[in-house]
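WARN retry 2 of 3 for item q-0093 after timeout on previous attempt; input resubmitted unchanged.
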Amino acid sequence: MTLAIIGGTGPQGQGLALRFARAGVSVALGSRDAGRAADIAAELAAKLPRGSAAVTGMRNDAAVAAAEEMVLLSVPWSGHNSTLEGIKDGLSGKILIDIVVPLAASDPKKVDMPPEGSATEAAQAMLGPDIPVMGALHNVSAHTLNNLDAAINCDVLVCGNGLAPRRKVMELMEKLGVRAYNAGDVQSARCIEAITPILIRINTSRQVPFSHAGIRIWPPDP
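OK item q-0093 returned
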């Protein structure tokens, strides 16, 4: 399969391209600048082990067209809506995976939720009910994603309207070697996205001996 990553030249997009390609998923790396996308794709390919799937750089609209079923949106919150406007005509029949968190411009340790309630809900409102929007990967550090020598140290919560597309996205997430959990309908994104600034606050605190921590669903001891 081919997964499109829109905003794939940013740190999180690059890390996800590496992880998915290593797991055997071909990646169409999208950017507003096709030349930059091609350059970044070549750099990523050089980091991948032999036998990995291809990473190909192209313009956003071409990346969406190359995706067989799923398009992943990985852009700063400031470019979320304008990027969606530019690609929405190509999303018919596909699933959008929105990983954007609406962090406050003045303080990334806070959220600035849109009127819809979350970035995922804003995307669903823009695209209409016929294009399923699934929220996922909101709480995974870009630094962790780009460190291929380390396992991803958290679980992934997947939410969105429609059980069938939710399960498809969960299956895709599990290719990264993580546990993916069904977190319910699209309104759950309000809670999931809001976890990210809390993690940023903890990970940048001088009072803890670590950084780039994530969250896990911890079962009771047997």
